[in-house]
Amino acid sequence: MSRAAIVLSGENPFPPSVEDFYLPSLFGGAWGTKFTLMVWLAVALIIVFMLTAYRNPKIVPTRMQWIAESIYGFTRNGIAEEVIGHKGVKFAPYLTSLLLFIAVTNIFAIVPGLQISPNSHIAFPIVLAICTYVLYLWIGVRKHGLGHYLKMSLVPPNVPWPMLFLLVPLEFAQTFILRPFTLALRLFANMFAGHVVLLVFTLGGFALLGANSWAIKPVSLVSWAMAIALTFFEALIALLQAYVFVLLTSSYLESSLADEH
C-alpha cells in the first residue's frame, strides 16, 4: 500500500518523519536500496548521454551535441576558469562530471516514481565532499609540499606570534574540518528540506481529504496546488545546489593552487 493510501485511510500518523529517508532494502542486502539504484541510474544516464552526444561529432553540432558542449563549456569557462584561472581548465572534466551527477540525482526528487534524491540522505553528499576534499588537499600538497602547504593553510601572514595560538586552531578547523562538512551539509540540508516540504503538502492533501468534516475536504486541493508549485521551485533549487557545490569545489581548488594565503 502506498504512503498516500495509508495516510488517507488514517492508519499512519501525519506528518512525515525522518524515518521516511531510511528506505527498506529491495534485495535483502544493506546496499540494495532505492537510493543505490538511483545513483547507478544517474551514472548510466550521464554516460549514455555523453557517448551518444559525441558518438559522431560534427562541426555544426546536433542538438544533443550542442547541449553536451554547452554544459561542458559553461563549467569550463563559467566556473573553472572564472574561479581558478587558466589552470582551472584541467579540472573541467571533474567539475563537469560533478555538476551533471549532482544535478541528475537532485532532479530525481521530482521525477514520478522516484520522487526523492539520494542527496537527501547524508551519506551521498559526504562521499561527494570527500572526493573534493581529497582532491584539493592532494593538489595543494603536490604544488607546495606538505610542510609549506600546512604553513600556508594554518599560519596567516604578518600576524603577531602570540595570536597564532588562537588563529592556527581556527584555520585548521576551517580548512580541514568545516570545508568538507559544510560542503556536504549544504547539499544534504537543501534536498532533505525540499523533500520534506513536498511530502507535507502532498500527503497533507490526502490527510485533509480523509478528514471527517466535509468542510475540510476541499482544502486538500489547496494543499496539492501548493505541492505542484513547490515542485517547480524544487527543480530550481536542485539545479542551483549542483552549481553551488561545483562553485565551492572550484574555490577550494583555487585556494590550494594559490601562492598566497
TrEMBL record:
Cellular component annotations (GO), alphabetically ordered: plasma membrane; proton-transporting ATP synthase complex
Residues spanning the membrane: 35-54, 94-116, 122-141, 161-181, 187-209, 221-246
Subcellular location as annotated: Cell membrane; Membrane
Main location: membrane
InterPro entries given in the database record: ATP_synth_F0_asu (IPR000568), ATP_synth_F0_asu_AS (IPR023011), ATP_synth_F0_asu_bact/mt (IPR045083), F0_ATP_A_sf (IPR035908)
Sorted UniProt keywords: ATP synthesis, Cell membrane, CF(0), Hydrogen ion transport, Ion transport, Membrane, Transmembrane, Transmembrane helix, Transport
One Pfam family from the record: ATP-synt_A
Membrane topology label: Multi-pass membrane protein
Domain of life: Bacteria
Molecular function terms, GO-annotated: proton-transporting ATP synthase activity, rotational mechanism
Entry-linked HAMAP family: ATP_synth_a_bact (MF_01393)
Membership in a protein family: Belongs to the ATPase A chain family.
Known function: Key component of the proton channel; it plays a direct role in the translocation of protons across the membrane.
Listed name of the protein: ATP synthase subunit a
Organism for this UniProt entry: Allocatelliglobosispora scoriae
Lineage, top ranks: Bacteria, Bacillati, Actinomycetota, Actinomycetes, Micromonosporales
